[in-house]
Amino acid sequence: MIKSMTGYGRSSVNFGEKKIMMDIRSLNSKQLDVSLRIPLMYREKESDIRNEISKMIQRGKVDLCITIEQEVIDKTVTINRDLVKNYFEQIKYIADDLKIPASEEMLYAAIRMPETMRADANIPDEAEWKAVLQCLQDCIKQFNKFREQEGQALEKDMNERIGFIKQNMEKISLFDEARIKNIKDRLRKNLNEFIGQENIDKNRFEQEIIYYLEKLDINEERVRLKNHCKYFYDTMKEDNPGKKLGFISQEMGREINTIGSKANDHEIQHLVVMMKDELEKVKEQLMNVL
Q: Does the predicted TM-score (pTM) go above 0.90?
């Protein structure tokens, strides 16, 4: 089953006077890379949040944002008096040295210095944490549902493109017989021009033609490409097939390139270019598949 690596989910829960809101989104990545933006009061639960995400989400650059709205601000502010005094004394010492009179602005400057004030947030109790965890799980479920919906669109697009490759591959057989005849006629014409028809050993000529055409034969490549297309379809039904589909697409590209190098025919070359174009678009889509 195809899932997109791009996803989005949102959930919220009311707990007392708080409204806890969560947004989670992701982009493509080779591994699971989690970035958290959470309130200070939930920091000690950060490892639990990461574990929950890793259990329910596979791969992707995941960004989780938790915000809180509450009617009453439940924080107490503590001023570090000793530190403020120390800052003030140093500022005053510099002012005296520069012969600048002391003023209230020095106290304001001291209070604004780093670590002079600290906001203590209340640590959530077990009941609140259960509500947060449930909200997180609901948010991830919405996120995974979004991934599945995006995956359906990706699967439809890739089905059409692989089908187009198969159609062009089947068209190659229409030109292959004429290609062989053209190659034989061209070789015979060149020999006639250079050494004359009467000097050609027909048996030797036929042997050389067979040897030459074996090198230009593309039947094996067409059969392998057909099998790769079928394997691609079957693999899309598996869980998280992104990497496997990437390997299959590489093998498809090798067969298409070999057909192009052996073809020696402008009609087949045209079909090869069209198949390459569709395969590149499939590879671009696979970058966003789990």
A: no
